[in-house]
Design goal:
Distance between the termini: 38 Å
Largest sheet: none
Order of helices and strands: HHH
Helix content: over 70%
Strand content: under 5%
Shape: flat
């Protein structure tokens, strides 16, 4: 059970780390790093939603 959970949880973090292109943040200070991380997570979530629902359905959901 723990092994399956670990695999499920680790995938998003590995994907985010790979998309960031490095293991460090480009900004300094906690508020800026927090903003940078939030933008990375938002981009990841939007990409996932696009892959799951498709462009037309996602736009329709956003408009509703």
């Amino acid at each position: 059970v723990a092994r399956i959970r670990r695999q499920t949880v680790e995938h998003p973090f590995a994907t985010l780390k790979a998309r960031m292109g490095a293991t460090h943040f480009l900004t300094r200070t906690l508020p800026r790093v927090s903003t940078e991380m939030s933008l990375h997570v938002l981009a990841y979530n939007l990409t996932r939603a696009l892959n799951i629902f498709g462009t037309k359905q996602l736009i329709g959901m956003i408009r509703a």
